Amino acid sequence: MNSELIGLLVGFILTLFIYSYLIKDNPLYRIAIHILVGVSAAFAAVVVMKEVIQPVFDMMRHDPTDADLLISMIPMLLALLLLLKRLPAVAWIGNSTVALLTGIGAAVAVTGAITGTLWPQLSRSAGGTPVEGMVIAVLTVCALFTFQFTGKLDKQGDWVRPVWQRSVVLIGRLVLTITFAVLFSTVFSTSLTLLADRIGYFVDQFSGLVS
């Protein structure tokens, strides 16, 4: 049995393990997931070691006074500070790295929402009728208000939104529900297509090896 056939058998078995989740959550599915996570983590560690850490040590060995070396040491220092979060006594030292990651992540998310969602929708609606543009803008704003959690406590001590915001949030939730339903149907149909393609791939490969 050659290595190519062994690889096909392993891939076929792991594929069956993954799709066994369609029946119910089971140990076979968990084994496949654990293998996937383990291999992905190992691959990421090798890439980080080869593409990030090793070049820094090479720079230190060739020219320790290089200015680029100082710039490269900054993310490594932040990563080391983040590792200190595992130690309760000095966990507070890693808060600076967490704050930096949170700030950058929020900035990227806001920028992506504006440039990737709001602005393209407004630009496209400009080419249509004013009514279409108004509807798109209103539904987009309602969907965004769904993630606005400002409110106050009532007399019973329960947190409630303002009256005007409740109706807006209701419309936004309806928009999100329809969007998620469409996305789910798309993902489901894509999964069936991938399953059929995967089965066809294994059938062709096994047929080629047998013949």
Fraction in beta strands: under 5%
The major beta sheet can be summarized as: 2 strands, antiparallel
Number of DSSP helical runs: 6
* Helical/strand content category: mainly alpha
> From the structure provided, what is the oligomeric state, counting identical versus distinct chains?
single chain
Any idea what the radius of gyration is?
Answer: 26 Å
* End-to-end separation: 14 Å
- Proportion of residues in helical segments: over 70%
- Which strand order spans the largest sheet, edge to edge or round the barrel? 1-2
List SSEs in N-to-C order. HHHHHEEH
- Ranges where pLDDT stays below 50 over 5 or more residues in a row are none
Average of per-residue pLDDT values = 82
Number of strands: 2
Shape: extended
Tell me the layout of helices and strands:
Blueprint: H1 3-19, H2 27-62, H3 67-83, H4 95-126, H5 130-145, E1 152-153, E2 159-160, H6 163-210
Attribute tags:
single chain, 211 residues, mainly alpha, 79% helix
Description:
The chain has 211 residues and is an all-alpha fold. Among the domains are: 13-62; 128-211. The chain is 79% helix and 2% strand. The protein is built from six helices and two strands. A two-stranded antiparallel ribbon has the order 1-2. A hairpin with a 5-residue loop joins strand 1 (152-153) and strand 2 (159-160). The longest helix is centred in the C-terminal third of the chain and has 48 residues, at 163-210. It is extended and about 70 Å long.
